[in-house]
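Field reference: "sequence" (input) and "structure" (output). Example, Sugar phosphate isomerase/epimerase:
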Amino acid sequence: MNLNNKIGVIIDSFGLGVIEGLKKAKEIGADGVQIYAVSGEMDPAVLTGNKRKELRSYIEGLGLEISALCGDLAGHGFQDAEANPAKIEKSKRILDLAVELGTNIVTTHIGIVPEDTGSRIYESMQRACEELGVYAKSMNAYFAIETGPEPAVHLKSFLDTLSTNGVSVNFDPANMVMVTGDDPVQGVKTLRDYIVHTHVKDGKLLRLVDPKDVYGFLGYSAMDHQKIAEMAASGAAFEEVPLGEGQVDFPGYFAALQEIGYTGYLTIEREVGANPAEDIAKAVSFIQSYRG
């Protein structure tokens, strides 16, 4: 397999802060980085004016580029109509920041898309995504929904109701394997028209789990990244593992991405483990083994 996609890493996985994380990404051979831009030093309200130019210049000086920003606001995604105006506004500011830093992709979780397409929650998610999609499209950019909370077929049917592809997909094969038991290879083909960014992560489903217990749901519980990481580390229902040790069919996954003509980033995410830097370095080598 002649895989020639660029390799990215989520620098937050290193737990070193932005600058040291960027240096580490360069050191282990990544081409680009994905960075959380929700709070702290990367919050759009904090990273303003010349600080944006300085960061972009620093990243380019390392010979790296940004594959995407992560704008995941957690909680209930866009299920809560009352909370949505503030979340939509913050999401737009994260997209503005992304474009200034040289990427046109912001990845996010929107909450589990309900089965009932006539429900108030479905409608509030639809309205929010429509507004975000139109805004992104006006900038030739994308909000990319991360796969996992619902099967690919259902996510596609939701995206098909929107007027633009400004809301598209960040494809994470491990989330699908660990939570819904969906097939990532078929998922790539199902979502082929929407995939603009991908994650490379591996995992195992150990027993059936209600996606609401992982991703939350309005009126049930809120999504919490720390809680998800703890679940993935504990192995009670599912387990995130180093690449090649789980249930993701990587030869099939990479082949499917090639088949649909995907030319974007393969971005490594590692949310658990005692030595994430070592795991991520091995992951870079794992992907490189599929090149040429």
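The first helix runs from residue 18 to 27.
Strands lie at 7-10, 32-36, 65-70, 105-108, 142-146, 167-171, 195-200, 202-205, 238-241, 266-268.
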